[in-house]
């Protein structure tokens, strides 16, 4: 019964978080801001208000594919957010600018996350191979190695949380202080940002649950010996 609850959690949590983001975004993508500015204009306005002129804003492809690339100094907004004038688009654009501001200020958690990227990628790629080999071969060494690699990927997930929450906080502060949204629009923007943050929380929780499962498996193997 416990194993069924476990698998239900790791399957349902991400689906629920993703569904909530899509519902919230869809709802507030139909609400136009009183500032009548596109997501691209919102991003550029906040960048310039913070004295950042070396970051470009360009349209991307796909649905909610918005991101900030610190290597190329680009904010990439999905087409609807780049061209649209919705509260949802403004919130998403401001959030990505939040990352650009973090980058400009050398925000500690952002720097740490960048350093962890190669370690996290390595952990994601090799941990399951080592863990599976450990299970099939009954090797404690392989199992432990896989757990260590996977723990690095989990650490990356949890370091991502303060980065994302801080970017959302900066986004709200910037939108309010620059007059890009008004009082009645603030709750709408917060709901969009909070829903997006849930996807990162869900991913971190699922990763932690997986890590705990592997640790319990390792302890069980050790006990069998």
From TrEMBL:
InterPro entries: Zn_peptidase_2. The chain crosses the membrane at residues 116-137, 144-163, 197-219. Pfam families: Zn_peptidase_2. The keyword Membrane applies. Keywords: Membrane, Transmembrane, Transmembrane helix. PANTHER family: MEMBRANE PROTEASE YUGP-RELATED. This is Zinc metallopeptidase. It comes from Jeotgalibacillus alimentarius.
């Amino acid at each position: 019964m416990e194993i069924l609850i476990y698998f239900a959690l790791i399957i349902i949590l991400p689906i629920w978080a993703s569904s909530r983001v899509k519902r919230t975004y869809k709802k507030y993508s139909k609400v136009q801001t009183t500032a009548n500015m596109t997501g691209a204009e919102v991003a550029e306005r906040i960048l310039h208000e913070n004295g950042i002129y070396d970051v470009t804003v360009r349209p991307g492809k796909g649905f909610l594919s918005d991101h900030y690339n610190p290597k190329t100094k680009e904010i990439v907004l999905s087409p609807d957010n780049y061209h649209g004038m919705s509260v949802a688009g403004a919130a998403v654009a401001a959030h990505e600018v939040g990352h650009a501001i973090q980058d400009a200020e050398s925000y500690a958690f952002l720097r740490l996350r960048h350093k962890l990227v190669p370690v996290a990628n390595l952990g994601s790629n090799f941990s399951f191979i080592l863990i599976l080999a450990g299970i099939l071969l009954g090797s404690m060494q392989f199992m432990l190695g896989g757990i260590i690699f996977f723990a690095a990927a989990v650490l990356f997930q949890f370091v991502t949380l303060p980065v994302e929450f801080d970017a959302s906080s900066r986004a709200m502060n910037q939108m309010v202080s620059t007059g890009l949204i008004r009082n009645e629009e603030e709750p709408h923007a917060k709901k969009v940002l909070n829903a997006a943050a849930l996807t990162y929380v869900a991913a971190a929780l699922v990763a932690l649950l997986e890590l705990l499962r592997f640790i319990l498996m390792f302890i069980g193997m050790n006990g069998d010996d």
